[in-house]
Write a structure and sequence with these properties.
about 240 residues, 2 helices, 15 strands, about 45% strand, protease
Length: about 240
């Protein structure tokens, strides 16, 4: 018979250490602000900057209350501003524009620029326009223009009479502007930058009995401007 061998020390297959093992450090992946967040933010804020030029032309109209419109030659009016198109948020090609009021000039209504019922305004009558806000959006694809416009209109007759300003606030648009009394339809930008901007505004009473009575304030007025708007890359 064969003999069985029983070793005195059993074969050790696994060695268990009694020493407390240190936990394996957990590796975490973090995105540093320089490698991710800033790049993402820069991409979101990436924009195209434009220089905007604005010029008014002849064949304009201004109307107030139920009176016939003034035929207004606004040639010589001008202004400059800046525009921006944020790449991520403006997929519809809207350019946000804002004009520098220091450069914005709109010719006054005088006997040399304005006719009423086919006749020039009386020599001493003058209506000055003092813009206070001019900003909005221009769509490069469609040619649609929508510009917030706010201005003070100053009526004066020589040095004899000067009324408090009439405040006019409206959106000058290439689309249609409709009020309760007045309405107008504009024209979108063409390939040469020409457009017609219209806007109906409500004119509130002022601290002048004569003007309030003469114009029937509160009432509506209509601005109808023939203009050229050009955009160029500022870079």
């Amino acid at each position: 018979m064969g003999s069985k061998v029983h070793p005195s020390n059993p074969l050790i297959l696994f060695k268990v250490s009694t020493r407390k093992q240190r936990p394996c450090p957990r590796r975490t992946i973090t995105f540093s602000s320089s490698s991710y967040s800033q790049n993402q933010q820069a991409q979101e804020l990436k924009s195209e900057i434009y220089r905007v030029n604005f010029r008014t032309l002849g064949a304009c109209k201004l109307g107030i209350s139920n009176y016939p419109d003034f035929d207004y030659n606004a040639e010589g009016g001008k202004g400059t501003g800046s525009g921006s198109k944020v790449a991520e948020s403006n997929s519809n090609d809207d350019i946000l524009v804002s004009f520098d009021l220091r450069t914005l000039y709109i010719p006054p209504l005088t006997s040399s620029t304005t006719k009423f019922l086919g006749l020039p305004l009386p020599p001493f009558l003058k209506i000055s326009i003092d813009p206070e806000l001019f900003r909005g959006s221009i769509n490069q694809n469609s040619g649609q223009v929508d510009l917030e416009f706010k201005a003070k209109f100053w009526f004066s007759v020589g040095s004899v009479y000067k009324a408090p300003p009439l405040v006019v606030e409206t959106v000058l648009t290439s689309e249609e502007s409709v009020g309760k009394m007045r309405s107008g339809r504009g024209e979108r930008l063409d390939k040469d930058g020409k457009c017609r901007l219209v806007g109906v505004a409500t004119v509130e009473p002022i601290d002048d009995f004569f003007m309030n009575s003469f114009l029937g304030l509160p009432t509506e007025c209509l601005a109808d401007l023939n203009a050229i708007i050009s955009l160029s890359d500022s870079s």
